[in-house]
């Protein structure tokens, strides 16, 4: 039997304790421990999830190529000083056929740039105000709204695990959450990629479809994804079947990462997902809710917690994120910062 992705109203997470909030927590925990995917609605900032409001953020893709080039990361222009944040162009031969930009917490608050030389805390290259008037303010507002939702979901997960609801809060103070804006164009047949191979195409509902976002599980904690009303995102359910994640207005698709799965001893599930090509250009706005760089991840305080050697989030993130094609060639630019407990 195909398992569908549930849509959960989460307004009660922002209200005082109540039986209704308990029921919402139970639904969230059931989704997190089951299929590992859900959609959420009814939360502060959900007014962003309309075509008109999303278009404010997606205006960045109207920039001229000369302006996009000013935002490139080091691995695409080694005259740049930004290694981790910034623009990534199309990679014609890669499975994941997309362009976009990764932005950090300085988008929402310029004072949140790290004073250290850690590339995970570097400033984000952003378009000038006169080039894209009002865009930066809109993106900052969206970033702050997603931080609030991420915090509410982590508190709900804590309650669902029987832990103090604020146990995760200190880890995410001064966190380095990433807002990513993505454009998936229709793949140009002349790119030279062998798109007929098994890596590049699948049969979906009797029709051969190109893969434009390779199968993977997110590496971190919680991903909040605003879609643009265009289908294409799929998740693998418990039976190993690929099911569509509905791109409904007014909702965020939510999935959980491998680190949260590990930290919770498998009680929260990191689900594999992919993107198959729709008939038109597709846009996507994921927000990765992340702790601070020096947050030490150690076993949680519950009976039967699986032991592991504590480590720093920044070390884990760099090692995992730099495996993706848009981060290729930068792994050597940051050395691990050893955990105090190691």
What would you call the structural class? alpha+beta
Strand content: 15-25%
- Put simply, the count of helices is 7
Q: What's the rounded overall pLDDT mean?
A: 89
Series of secondary-structure elements, N-terminal to C-terminal? EHEHHEEHHEEEEEEEHEEEEH
| CATH level-3 fold name | Jelly Rolls
Q: Give the N-terminus to C-terminus distance in angstroms.
A: 46 Å
Assigned CATH architecture: Sandwich
Helix content: 10-25%
**How many distinct beta strands?**
15
Tally of separate domains: 1
Radius of gyration: 20 Å
Largest sheet: 8 strands, mixed
**Name of the level-1 CATH class:** Mainly Beta
How do the strands of the widest beta sheet line up side by side?
1-2-11-8-13-5-4-3
CATH H level, superfamily name: B-lactam Antibiotic, Isopenicillin N Synthase, Chain
CA-based shape: globular
- Uncertain runs are none
Structure description:
It is a single chain. The protein is an alpha+beta fold. It has one domain: Jelly Rolls, CATH 2.60.120. Helix content is 21%, strand content 21%. The protein has an eight-stranded mixed beta sheet. A hairpin with a 5-residue loop joins strand 9 (233-236) and strand 10. Helix 1 packs across helix 4 (135-160). The chain starts with 6 loop residues before the first strand and ends in a 21-residue tail after the last helix.
């Amino acid at each position: 039997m195909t398992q569908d992705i549930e849509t959960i109203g989460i307004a009660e997470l922002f209200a005082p304790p109540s039986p209704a909030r308990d029921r919402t927590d139970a639904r969230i925990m059931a989704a997190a421990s089951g299929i590992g995917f859900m959609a959420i609605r009814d939360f502060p900032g959900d007014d962003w999830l309309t075509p008109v409001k999303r278009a404010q953020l997606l205006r960045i893709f109207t920039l001229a190529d000369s302006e996009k080039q000013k935002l490139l990361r080091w691995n695409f222009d080694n005259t740049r000083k930004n290694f981790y944040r910034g623009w990534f162009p199309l990679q014609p031969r890669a499975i994941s056929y997309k362009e976009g930009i990764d932005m950090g917490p300085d988008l929402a608050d310029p004072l949140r740039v790290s004073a250290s030389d850690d590339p995970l805390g570097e400033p984000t290259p952003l378009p000038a105000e006169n080039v894209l008037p009002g865009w930066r303010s809109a993106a900052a507002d969206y970033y702050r709204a997603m931080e609030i939702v991420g915090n509410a979901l982590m508190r709900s997960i804590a309650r669902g695990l029987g832990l103090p609801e604020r146990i995760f809060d200190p880890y995410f103070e001064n966190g380095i959450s990433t807002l990513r804006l993505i454009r998936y164009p229709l793949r140009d047949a002349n790119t030279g990629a062998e798109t007929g191979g098994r890596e590049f195409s699948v049969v979906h509902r009797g029709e051969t479809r190109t893969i434009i976002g390779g199968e993977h599980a997110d590496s971190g904690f919680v991903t909040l994804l605003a879609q643009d009303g265009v289908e294409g995102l799929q998740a693998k359910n418990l039976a190993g079947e690929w099911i569509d994640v509905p791109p409904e207005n007014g909702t965020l698709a939510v999935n959980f990462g491998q680190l949260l799965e590990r930290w919770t001893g498998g009680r929260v599930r990191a689900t594999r997902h992919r993107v198959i090509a729709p008939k038109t250009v597709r846009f996507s706005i994921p927000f990765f809710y992340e702790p601070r760089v020096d947050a030490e991840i150690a076993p949680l305080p519950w009976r039967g917690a699986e032991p592991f050697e504590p480590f720093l989030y920044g070390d884990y993130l760099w090692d995992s994120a730099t495996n993706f094609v848009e981060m290729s060639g930068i792994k050597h630019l940051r050395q691990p910062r050893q955990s105090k407990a190691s």
